[in-house]
Amino acid sequence: MTLHHNEVLVDEELVRSLLEAQCPQWADLPLSFAGAGTDNSMYRLGGDLLVRIPRTADTARSVRKEQEWLPRLAPHLACLVPEPVHAGTPTNAFPLVWSVYRWIDGDVAGLDTVRDWAAFGADLAAIVRELHDIDLMGATREGDLSWYRGGSLQACDQWISACLDDCRTMVGSELDVEALEKLWRAALGLPEAPGPHVWLHGDLKPTNLLVREGRVQAVIDFGCLSVGVPDAEHSTIWDLPREARQVYWDTLGLDDLTWARARAWAIAVGVSGISYYWSTYPAFVAECQGRLQAILTDAAAR
Question: Aminoglycoside phosphotransferase domain: from which residue to which, for each copy (predicted)?
Answer without folding.
Answer: 33-265
